[in-house]
């Protein structure tokens, strides 16, 4: 944990260093203290205490400099009275209320009294909501009496206390878990946002295409597939129910079908079975062989022998598998 104390003159510098750049105006006697818990890459938890009134403005020019993977801030007002203006919405920050802020849009934040905050700062890409949903959720008060908000507040308070005793991996997992609970809380305040063409079938087809085009990526699991398409894991399962399967089963099936195509194609006869497994994103040979036997009732070696004199696989499958073999990453541990 880091402890930082600041006066009014130092606040802008501190905000630029650990928060986002802004222009601040405050009382001459304004001062504060911030305790900072780093929770792995792109997630930070702050507990801060301000004395004196303050107005912080993030201008349109500052917001325009935000990267595509920019900062999101969710602030819970533990005590005091504040206001937040963003996206033409004015939200009141009563004690216990949480409000989401996005760095890519200008905003003004006003604290009129002594205030205590608990703030979760994270990368926008980690929040499992669509871009339109995120923007629509900004500057909307999350009711402290809402069950999801109560869960989130209690979790963040406890996490802040216990973070120093967690391992680095546990801190990372805990930070990501907090963002998942936040997404649940935000869905309770966000109006229904259309998905462009309004079709979940289109989103499902995008996810299926992504799987087929990224079979060689060993990091492509259900959680990662959901994150890349800005949906929750639960929603990913709901989407794949439309075709009578789960995202994990679909991913496994497509990898094994691609491997079968390579084993059936004489062009890959010189490629070791372990290399074919890696080419479809399966990094452990025994795991690959067991899954292949369950799927096709034979070992990969038997499949290759059976099709040794057969014709080549379809051109589209050849192309996809050849690209996968050329681009396959270094082996890790599991699929």
Give, in spatial order, the strands making up the sheet with the most strands: 1-3-4-11-6-9
Unreliable sequence segments: 192-198, 311-334
- What name is given to the CATH topology of the largest domain? Jelly Rolls
* Elements, N to C (H/E): EHEEEEHEEEEEEHHHHHHHHHHH
Q: Work out the count of structural domains.
A: 2
Tell me the β content.
15-25%
Determine the structural class based on helices, strands and strand pairing.
Answer: alpha+beta
- N- to C-terminal distance: 35 Å
Radius of gyration over C-alpha positions, nearest whole angstrom: 25 Å
The description of the largest β-sheet is:
6 strands, antiparallel
Helix content: 40-55%
Total E-strand runs? 11
CATH class of the largest domain: Mainly Beta
Mean pLDDT: 83
The CATH architecture term of the largest domain is Sandwich
Textual characterization of the structure:
With 335 residues, the protein is α+β, with helices and mostly antiparallel strands. The chain has two domains: 2-187, Jelly Rolls, CATH 2.60.120.10; 200-327, Homeodomain-like (Arc Repressor Mutant, subunit A), CATH 1.10.10.60. 43% of the residues lie in helices and 21% in strands. The protein has 13 helices and eleven strands. It has helices at 8-18, 60-64, 131-137, 147-162, 168-187, 200-213, 222-228, 233-240, 247-263, 273-279, 285-296, 300-306, 315-327, and strands at 2-7, 23-26, 31-38, 43-51, 54-58, 71-79, 82-86, 89-93, 98-102, 107-111, 115-123. The strands form two sheets. It has a six-stranded antiparallel sheet with strand order 1-3-4-11-6-9. The chain has a five-stranded antiparallel sheet with strand order 2-5-10-7-8. A hairpin with a 2-residue loop joins strand 7 (82-86) and strand 8. Helix 4 runs antiparallel to helix 5, helix 9 (247-263) packs across helix 13 (315-327) and helix 10 (273-279) crosses helix 13. Residues 192-198 and 311-334 have low confidence and may be disordered.
């Amino acid at each position: 944990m880091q402890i930082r104390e600041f006066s009014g003159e130092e606040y802008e510098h501190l905000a630029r260093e650990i928060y986002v750049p802004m222009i601040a105006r405050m009382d001459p006697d304004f001062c504060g203290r911030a305790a900072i818990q780093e929770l792995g890459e792109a997630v930070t938890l702050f507990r801060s205490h301000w004395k004196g009134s303050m107005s912080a403005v993030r201008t349109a020019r500052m917001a325009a400099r935000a990267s595509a993977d920019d900062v999101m801030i969710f602030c819970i007002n533990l005590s005091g009275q504040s206001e937040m203006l963003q996206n033409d919405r004015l939200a009141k920050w009563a004690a216990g209320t949480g409000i989401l802020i996005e760095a890519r849009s200008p905003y003004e934040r006003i604290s009129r009294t002594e205030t205590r905050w608990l703030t979760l700062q994270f990368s926008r890409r980690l929040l499992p909501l669509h871009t339109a949903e995120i923007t629509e959720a900004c500057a909307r008060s999350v009711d402290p009496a809402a069950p999801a908000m109560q869960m989130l507040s209690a979790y963040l308070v406890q996490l802040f206390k216990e973070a120093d005793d967690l391992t680095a991996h546990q801190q990372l997992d805990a930070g990501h878990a907090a963002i998942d609970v936040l997404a649940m809380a935000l869905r309770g305040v966000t109006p229904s946002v259309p998905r462009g063409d309004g079709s979940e079938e289109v989103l499902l087809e995008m996810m299926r295409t992504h799987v087929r085009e990224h079979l060689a990526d060993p990091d492509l699991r259900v959680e990662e597939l959901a994150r890349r398409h800005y949906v929750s894991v639960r929603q990913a399962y709901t989407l794949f129910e439309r075709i009578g399967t789960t995202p994990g089963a679909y991913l496994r099936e497509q990898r094994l079908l691609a491997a079968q195509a390579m084993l059936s194609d004489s062009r890959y006869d010189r490629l070791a079975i372990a290399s074919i497994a890696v080419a479809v994103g399966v990094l452990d040979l025994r795991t690959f062989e067991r899954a292949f036997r369950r799927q096709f009732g034979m070992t990969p070696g038997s499949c290759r022998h059976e099709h040794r004199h057969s014709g080549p696989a379809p051109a589209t499958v050849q192309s996809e598998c050849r690209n996968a073999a050329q681009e396959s990453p270094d082996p890790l541990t599991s699929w």
